[in-house]
TrEMBL record, chain A:
Similarity section: Belongs to the VPS26 family.
PANTHER family from the UniProt entry: VACUOLAR PROTEIN SORTING 26 RELATED
Region Disordered, annotated ranges: 297-346
GO biological process per UniProt: intracellular protein transport
Name of the featured protein: Vacuolar protein sorting-associated protein 26
Skewed-composition ranges (Low complexity): 327-346
Cited InterPro entries: Arrestin-like_C, Vps26-related
From TrEMBL, chain B:
MF (Gene Ontology): phosphatidylinositol-3-phosphate binding
Span of domain PX: 31-157
A Gene Ontology biological process term: late endosome to Golgi transport
Homology family: Belongs to the sorting nexin family.
Function as written in the Swiss-Prot or TrEMBL entry: Required for retention of late Golgi membrane proteins. Component of the retrieval machinery that functions by direct interaction with the cytosolic tails of certain TGN membrane proteins during the sorting/budding process at the prevacuolar compartment. Binds phosphatidylinositol 3-phosphate (PtdIns(P3)).
Membrane topology summary: Peripheral membrane protein
One GO term describing the cellular component: Golgi membrane
Record's subcellular location: Cytoplasm; Golgi apparatus membrane; Prevacuolar compartment membrane
Protein name per the record: Sorting nexin-3
């Protein structure tokens, strides 16, 4: 956008979903800004219309109108480097003169989108359309971001994690988590069994830690973030006690595990089990878990609302999109089908 | 909150666990360790005085040879222990109550009895108790011979003492 303050003669907008069929997601761009982005999947077309709007009675001479679909990784540490891994380009308009507002249709067919959009601490992976109106002195550039999600199937092998750890002669525990691979709305079910307790434990908590690694080889830059902390035991256990774990992942801002994306970064998740003794000493065990994204089950919105509002009139299409956001439908998966009415979820 | 119906929500039902035995549930806990610093006594006369404290320990931890013991230690013995642990163990050793140099200024320059004031001794006693409990409960400190000598030997024999590790008997 022009910063010169005089106001640009040209403005452009992208119409991506004229029939209102595509889902949107609220994305946090930085600490203050949020925006709504359309969700795309791997292999889908990216198509729509570019609306170029001209100020009244103005003319813009240009050397061409170009539209690009770009996928890039931006590394935000000291030297902000940008690595493009996708660049598709189309010429929407030959050099000439814009005299009137116009709409230009476009279609990038079967676009490969191999990674999920990611907005992290040191890394931004984004996909976006960029319209450039090429001019002699300064181009007009307009961008629109889209959000790409990577869906996976249930893993064929998903072993539980079971381990005995401790400090010799002081503390021995056996911990168990029901799976090693969890989807983003899954529940971590587990238990801690105390085999030997010779220290004075005050409480125990479990945390989800995200580790974002930037770069490879000798220049790895690691950034850790504690996404969640959840107390699972208050008080002193004795030998033979079992403490249950039940941690609902849907409540936290998690992304799928991303390993070695374009050899530039990784995002991995760990469960950190922490025991704290009476002198505030901390004993911990970190265990990596693999997170993946499952397809939401809400494809038939009308069917679902009919079940929920059985006693009322079927809502009009205008109401539907507000009252059945995608989040609700995934929670329904965890609840059994009988619980649709009054019992609030845990 | 309604209890979770495990049959309908099997995917979040608790993992099966072994029941705890009656002995484990009601026996004294395996982490019993109590150390008290009590009965400060000032010995000697004039400027050759010193104060020592009773260190009374009760425990059922197998790493300690004696399950009950009582010894007398003075501030410099605590300093010795702290120095040994800082050098040999990998732990961050907590600090001792202050050395109180100001109070050790000669008696004729002071209005009170310096380090032999009751209030000061009580403050120091509390600090020493905090210190020894924090240290003795640390799994890594429990492996150091200096801690065992400090807590359980009647006197600290600096000639015979050799630094080293203690294993569980």
């Amino acid at each position: 956008m022009d910063i010169l303050g005089l106001g640009s003669k040209v403005d452009a907008d992208f119409i991506l979903d004229p029939q209102g069929q595509r889902k949107q997601i609220d994305v946090k761009i930085d600490d203050t800004k949020r925006s709504s982005q359309y969700i795309y999947y791997d292999g889908e077309d990216v198509s729509g219309t570019v609306q170029v709007k001209l100020k009244k009675n103005s003319k813009v001479e240009h050397q061409g109108i170009r539209l690009e679909f770009i996928g890039q990784i931006e590394m935000l540490n000291d030297r902000s480097t940008i690595h493009e891994f996708i660049n598709l380009s189309k010429l929407l308009g030959f050099p000439g003169e814009l005299t009137d507002s116009s709409s230009i249709d476009f279609n990038f067919g079967n676009v490969e989108k191999p990674y999920e959009s990611y907005n992290g601490i040191n890394i931004k992976l984004r996909y976006f359309l960029r319209l450039t109106i090429i001019k002699r002195f300064s181009n007009n550039v307009f961008e629109r971001d889209i959000c790409v999600q990577q869906l996976s199937q249930y893993p064929e092998i998903n072993n539980s994690i079971k381990m005995e750890v401790g400090i010799e002669d002081c503390l021995h525990i056996e911990f168990e988590y029901n799976k090693s691979k969890y989807h983003l709305k899954d529940v971590v079910v587990g238990k801690i069994y105390f085999l030997l307790v010779r220290i004075k434990i005050k409480h125990m908590e479990i945390a989800i830690i995200k580790k974002e690694n930037t770069g490879t080889g000798p220049n790895i830059y690691a950034e850790n973030e504690t996404i969640a902390k959840y107390e699972i035991m208050d008080g002193a256990p004795v030998r033979g006690e079992s403490i249950p774990i039940r941690l609902f992942l849907a409540g936290y801002e998690l992304t799928p595990t991303m390993k070695d994306v374009q050899r530039k970064f990784s995002v991995r998740y760990f469960l950190n089990l922490v025991l704290v003794d009476e002198e505030e000493r901390r004993y911990f065990k970190q265990q990596e878990i693999f997170l993946w994204r499952k397809q939401d089950k809400d494809t038939d919105k009308t069917k679902q609302s009919a079940k929920q509002y059985a006693h009322y009139q079927r809502p009009t299409p205008a109401n539907q999109s507000e009252e059945n956001p995608t989040e609700n439908s995934s929670v329904n998966e965890v609840l059994s089908s009988e619980n649709n009415s009054d019992i609030p979820s845990d | 909150m309604a209890t979770i119906d495990a049959d309908n929500r099997r995917e979040i039902a608790r993992l099966p666990s072994r029941p705890i035995s009656l002995e484990d549930r009601y026996d004294p806990p395996a982490n019993f360790l109590e150390i008290e610093v009590l009965n400060p006594e000032t010995h000697g006369f004039g400027n050759k005085r010193y104060t020592d404290y009773e260190i009374r320990m009760r425990t059922n931890l197998p790493v300690f040879r004696l399950k009950e013991c009582s010894v007398r230690r003075r501030y410099s013995d605590f300093e010795w222990l702290r120095k040994e642990l800082e050098r040999d163990s990998k732990i961050v050793v907590p600090s001792l109550p202050s050395k109180a140099w100001q109070r050790q200024v000669p008696a004729f320059l002071r209005r009170d009895d310096g380090i032999f004031e009751d209030e000061f001794i009580e403050e120091r006693r509390k600090g020493l108790e905090q210190f020894i409990n924090k240290v003795a409960g640390h799994p890594l400190a429990q492996n150091e011979r200096s801690l065992h000598v400090f807590l359980q030997d009647t006197t600290i024999d600096h000639d015979k003492y050799v630094p080293g590790k203690v294993r569980n008997s």
